[in-house]
Amino acid sequence: MKTKQIFLYVFMIFSCFACEEFLEEEPRALISPETFLASASDAKTFINGYYAILKNNSIYGQIGLDHFYDNGCDIIEPNRIANFVAGISNYEMNEAIADRSVQKMSVSDTWKDFYRIILNTNTLISRIADNENISQAERTDFVADARFVRALCYWHITNLWGDAPFYTEVLTLEEIGALGRTDEDIILDAVLDDLEFAQANLKNEYTGEEAGRASRWAAALIEAKIHMQRRNWQAGLDKCLEIINQSPHQLLPTYAEVFDPNNEYNAEIIWSLDFAKDIRGQFEEGVLRADGTLPGFAGNGNWRASMFNPRLRDEPRNNDDRDALIAALAANGEAMNGTGLQVASKDFAEKFPLNDLRRPLNVNDQYEGIQLNFPYMPKFMNLNLATSPRFNHSDNRMVFRLADIYLMAAECENELNGPTNAYQYIHAVRERAYATQAEWELVGLSQQQFREAIYDERKWELAGEAWRRYDLIRWGILLDVVQNLEYRFWDPASNIKPWHVKLPIPLQEIINNPALLESDPTNNGYRQ
Question: How far is CA 57 from CA 53, 103, 195, 474, 521, in A?
């Protein structure tokens, strides 16, 4: 699913409008899906189109989902006051803040883009179902892909907003714009049905030009997570063991290998979205500069790496070392040309075990021996000027990987039967994280102690991979954790409220569709 193809796709016409503008478009100005989806080639183009939306700033392209799943807890914080992060990180969120579009990665942008994808997956499923110009095998594959992506979107929507508008058929824009909120459990039941179909019909893996498509194992992972959300531990364990024992994926020997930018489709990664350097995305503006950089905060040049890369103006700690830092960077063909808006939080950096071999990939405050001001997360950094200039990265977006599954299996087994048989799964992850068995082996833990070990192990292993708030919320401990945090310059401990486990529906969406308040006039508690 190469990003270099995105600008070719006629499908993108369905995605380029703001929500209110989209609803007001003259239908005759749009290309008809009935006409366009006439062949397998058309269907592939349509699929590439909704994958392109998944790569938008609002979802997986930059810090859309990172924004909601990692900020505002105990792993990541920005290195300075940044207003567009404050809503989540400092728990300042309200309907009006949710409504503002900031660099295409606000609450509003995420809401709109998820529903754009859902509209288009529904359309694909409906239009090709009986199309005999497309072979049955291709139709099944295309529908399985669409149902996986639809399930993914609805799963994220329920995580972020709970009850939400839900539809799986082709509705008119007017019908969509009048939908109320459907109960979260009803949506998740439908998600599980889509995931079951996807697992039965998607391939074990996709390679070549199809690299970047989700396999059956990506669908299986989401199913396992839903079972765990519902505390259906046996079903969750069964699905995790199916992935461990039957998928082609395996843990790599070292933690660093997982994040090697030269091996982006390695055996541990279950799903990774493909990006390409020098390619224009949906919201790109301007043209490449002579040095290969994109202007300003350009759209989908995959600048997620730039969020984790240091910003030279912030470094080093000692100004007398500045010339040495610049010289060292130049000698390595590197540059600190990022934004520095995603760094290891104060709490995370202080608590990460010093003997853990994962620490240098998650907490690093030095460059070539020169002391830096902030602890950065090198596993997501790419300072290489030739392959990864500012806001123009080729780095893939890793979404799911196998180590997560091992820790999920450990958690499920512990909840079912205690730690005895759960050690094997957590040890598989810890063994590569420490130099000796005495360090990685856990023994003699009670069920509660093992549960707390999982809380920490998921923090160290999956840091910055967009799981932490999700985990803390499903464990029911987000408030307890945040209320004991100290940030560098914000005070989330004082601001967090019980309703912050969900986001508000953006104000303009409510103005456009008052039915969104019928089942919950408080808008997830934000109207107190």
Answer: 9, 7, 25, 25, 30
